Amino acid sequence: MDSTRKEWLLNALIATALLAVPLWALMANEPFIITLATRIAILAIAAVGLNIALGLGGMVSFGHALYLGLGGYVAGIAAHHAFSGTTVLGLPGTNQMLPIWAIAMILSGAVAGVVGALSLRTSGIFFIMITLAFAQMGFFFTLSWPAYGGEDGLPIFVRNQFPGLNTARPWDMFLLSYAVLIAALILFAMLRAARFGAALMAIRQNPDRAAAIGISPFGIKLVGFIISGMITGLAGAMMADLTRFVSPAMLAWTMSGELIVIIILGGVGRLFGPVAGAAILVGFEVFFGGLTEHWKLWLGLVLLGVVLFARGGLIGLLAGRAQNG
Amino acid sequence: MADPVLDLRGLSKAFGALKATDDVSLTLLPGEIHALIGPNGAGKSTLMGLVSGKITPDAGEVRLGGQDITALSVANRARLGLGRSFQVSSLIPEYSALRNVMLAVQARQGHSYRFLKPVMRDRPLRDEARAILSRVGLDSRASVEAAVLSHGERRLLEIAVALALKPRCFLLDEPMAGLGSEGTARLVSFLQTLRQEAPILLVEHDMDAVFRLADRISVLVYGRIIATGSVDDIRANAQVRAVYLGEETSA
Amino acid sequence: MSLALVLEQLLNGVQFGLMLFLMSAGLTLVFGVMGLINLAHGSLYMIGAFLCAAVSGITGNFWLGLMGGLTAAAAAGALIEVLVIRRLYVRDHLDQVLATFALILILSEAMRLIFGPFPLYLNVPSALRGTVSLGIVDYSLYRLALIGFGIAVALGLWVLIAKTRLGIRIRAGESDREMIAALGVNIRALYTIVFALGAALAGLAGALVGAIQSVQVGMGEPVLILAFVVIVIGGIGSIKGAMVGALLVGVIDTMGRFLLPRVFAAFLDTSQAMGVGAALASMLIYLLMALVLIFRPKGLFPAHG
Question: Which of B52, B95, B143 sits opposite A202 (nearest CB)?
Fold first, then answer.
C-alpha cells in the first residue's frame, strides 16, 4: 500500500476513533471522557490553524497563544456583558456562539494581519522571537488589565448558546466541536491542494525560487498567517466555552509552545497531524498524570525522542513521508 | 536597430572596497543570444543578481522592454517577463517535476490567491505543464520529486520552469554546468530553438558552447566589461586573449 | 516622587539589567557560535539557584553555595550539550525550539523530584546585609554588590573573548566554522566549552538573584524570555549588543513600572492610572523589541555584518 493511501486510512481511523470513543462514553455515562474528547477536538482546531502557518508556510510562530487568548477573551467578555446586561464599546454582550465566533475570527485575523505584516519582515530566529514578543504583550496586558479579571481571569457562568443544541450537555458540546474540527480540516486540505497552498508550500521550501518565478513570498505568507490566526482564534472562543473560564494563562508562551508540540507530535504539515498530536498530548496528561505527578518529565522525554529520532511525528511514523504529488 | 529587450545602463555595485560591478552597460536585442563570459570572480553572479533584482545597484538602471525596473522586487520583475534559471539548481525540492512547472505556469498567470480548487484537477494547468516538460524531454520523469532527479534532469527542469514563464527574455545562469558533453550538445541545439521565443542572456563557462551559440559576447573582468562584440571580434581581441591565456597559465 | 526614589529605581534597573546580561551572554554566544536557540537556558539559571540554596543551606556559607551553583550549572550544561544539544546544531530552528522546550520540562520536573515542590530560600550573605548610604539614598548593599559583580563578570568576559586563545577561537567560530576546523581546533570540545561557559554564567545569575527572590521551579522561564528580548534587541551573537540590550531592558522595565502609573495619575483617577500604567509598563520592553526589529530587523549590533 502506498503511503498516501496509508495516510488516508490512518486519518479515517483517527476521525472515527475521535467520534466513537465519546459515543461509547455517552452510552456508558462517562461525561468526563466526552469532555476530554471535546478538549482534544478544540486543541486540534487551534493546532490546525497553526499548521497552516507552520506546516504549510514554514512560519515558526511562537506566539499563537495570542490568537487563542483573543478568541477566548472575546467569548468571555461577550458572555460577561450579556450576563450583567452592560455594554462594551457601545455594544451589548451576547451569549450566542455564532456572533462570538465571527468576532473572534475577525479580531484574530486583524491582529494576525498586523503581527504578520511586521514580523514577516524578519526571518529565522528573529521571526520566532518577534511573534513571541507580540504574544507576551497580550499576555501581560491581560494580566495587568483589571477590567476583565486581570490575573484572576474571567469566568463564563453559563456556557454560550448554539442554535438547535443544548451546549450545557457534554455530548452536544462535543458534537459541535467535532463538526468545527472536521470543517477546519476540510478547509486545511482545500487550501493545501489549491493554488494558494502550492505557492505557500513552495515558498517554505525555496523562497528565492518562488520570487524568481514571480510569486512574491510576503503577500502569500501574510495571507497564510492571517487565516492561521483566525482558525486558532475560533478555537480560543470554543476553548473558553468548554472550560467556562478565560485567563491570561491562555496567552502564556508555554501555550504557544504546546501548540507547536501538538503539531510535532502528530506530524508537521500533515492533515491529521494536529488531531493525532492533540490526542497524544491530552491522553498523555490524563494517563500519566494519573500515575505520577511528574508526568511532564515523561512528556519531555517523549518529545525529545520524537524531535531527535522521529521527525515525522505519529503520522510520519505510521504512514511514511508526506507526498506532495 | 531594434529596441533592446533588456537594457543595462551604467550599473555599479560595491561591497565595501570591492567594486563587484563597475559601470556595466549591456543590451539584449530581440532574437539574439548574448553571452556573458569572464574568469571566476569577475562579478558575473553579482551582475545576475542586479538584473534579477536580488541585489540593489548603487548606481545605474535596468530596463526591460523600455520600462525602468530598477526599483522592482525579484517577484515583480519575474511577472514582467524576466525568466531566470539558476546556476545552482534551485527548484522546489519536494515537488515533482510536473508540479515545479505547474507552479511556474500558475505564477505566470498571476493567480496564486485561489483557495479552493485543487491544482491537480486544473486540467489546463496540468496539460500546459506536461507539454513544456515534453519539450525539454522530461515527460517520462514528470512525477519524480525534483530532489531525486539527476543533475542533468534538474538542469533541464530549470529550463522548463523558465519556459513556463513565457518570458520576454531568458536569463540563463550557467545552464551547461556539470552536464557532460552529450548533455551540453543537446542543450545547445535546444537553446537554438529557444531563441525563437525570446532572446537569451547567457552566462556560461563552456567556451565551445558560447562560441557556437552566441551572436554577441561580452567579457567581464573585475566587474567591468572589457569588450563586447561578435564571436570573431572576441576571439581576435588581444585584451581578452591576455585575460584568458593569463588565467590558463596560472591555473 | 522624590529624586532619591528615582535614583533607587534607576539602580534597581541597572542591577536587573546586569543580571540579565549574565543570562543573555551565554544565550547570545551559543547562538552566535553554534547557531542554536536554547530555550533550556532558563533551566540552567534555575539549577544554579537551587544548588546554591542547597549547598549554602548545608554549609551555612553563601560563597560556597555560589561556587556550588555555578559548578553545577556548568556541569549540567556540559552534560546536556554532549547528550542532546550536539545533535541539534545541524537541525532547523523548529527542532531546536522543541528539543530545548522538552529539556525545560525534563529539568523542571527533575528539580521538583530532587528538591520537592516547595520553594527554597537563600539568604543574602551576612557581610552584604543592610544598606549603604549613597548620599541622597540608602541603597541595599547586596544589590549594589550585584552591580559591582555584574560589571566585574562582564569585564572578565570581555578579556576572555578579546584577549585569550579561547576567545580567538570563539570569535573565529562565529565568523567561519570551517576555518576553525581547518585550523585544527577541536570543534566539538570548543562547542562543549562555550555551552558550559554560558551555562555557568546563567547558573551564576540564578544563584545571585536567588538570594533576593524565592528559589523555585519555573523561576527560569520569565528570565529566559527577557534574555531573548535582550539578545534580539542587541543583535544575536553580539556580546556588546547583549550588554546594551540588557541595560536597556533592565532600566526601561524597572522605570516603566515605576513611572507609568504615576504619569497616568496626572490625568486619570488613581486606581485606573495604576491599572493602565501597570498594563502598559509590563508590555513596554516587548514593544521596544518589536520596534527594534521593525526598524533594524537584525538588532542594534548585528554580529555578522
Answer: B95
CA distance B199 to B29: 7
Residues of C with CB below 8 A from A137's CB? Answer: 283, 286-287, 290
| Residue among C172, C175, C170, C171 at smallest CA distance from C190 | C170
The residues that bridge with B85 in the sheet, in sequence order, are B172
Nearest CA in chain C to A126: C232
Q: Across the interface, do A198 and B119 touch by the CB < 8 Å criterion? A: yes
Q: What is the DSSP letter of A124?
A: T
Percent helix, strand and coil across chain A, each to the nearest 5: 75, 5, 20
Give me the tens of pLDDT residue by residue for chain C, a chain 305 residues long. Answer: 588 889 999 999 999 999 999 999 999 989 888 889 999 999 999 999 999 999 999 998 999 999 999 999 999 999 999 999 999 998 888 999 999 999 999 999 999 999 988 898 888 888 888 888 888 888 899 999 999 999 999 999 988 888 888 888 777 766 666 666 666 667 888 899 999 999 999 999 999 999 888 899 989 988 999 999 999 899 888 889 999 999 999 999 999 999 988 888 888 887 777 778 888 888 899 889 888 888 888 889 887 53
Contacts of A134 in chain C (CB under 8 A): 286, 290
Number of domains in chain A: 1
Beta strands B67-68; B224-229: pairing state: unpaired
- Count up the domains in chain B and report the number: 2
Closest CB to B92 among A206, A217, A220: A206
> Looking at CA atoms only, how far is residue B107 from chain A in angstroms?
6
Q: B207 and B195, same structural domain? A: yes
Determine the 3-state secondary structure of A12 from DSSP: helix
Q: pTM value?
A: 0.90
Domain boundary among B108, B135, B166: B166
- How wide is the angle at C-alpha C53 spanned by C-alphas C50 and C55, nearest 5°? 105
Q: Residue B158's domain spans which residues?
A: 91-166
State the cell numbers at A228. 492561521
> CB of A62 within 8 Å of any CB in chain C?
yes
Query: For residue A299, is it within any domain?
Result: no
Q: B103 and A217 in contact by Cβ < 8 A?
A: no
Residue C233 · residue C28 · CB < 8 Å: no
Q: Which of B135, B166, B197 is the last residue of a domain?
A: B166
Under DSSP, the state recorded for A151 is G
User: Which domains does chain C show, CATH number per domain?
Assistant: 3-295 (1.10.3470)
Instruction: Please indicate, yes or no, whether residues B199 and B99 belong to a single structural domain of this protein.
Output: no
Q: How far is CA C53 from CA C23, C119, C181, C199, in A?
A: 19, 10, 40, 17
* Cα separation, A119 vs A137, whole angstroms: 14
C-alpha cell at B173: 545562469
Contact between residue C257 and residue C282 where contact means Cβ atoms under 8 Å apart: yes
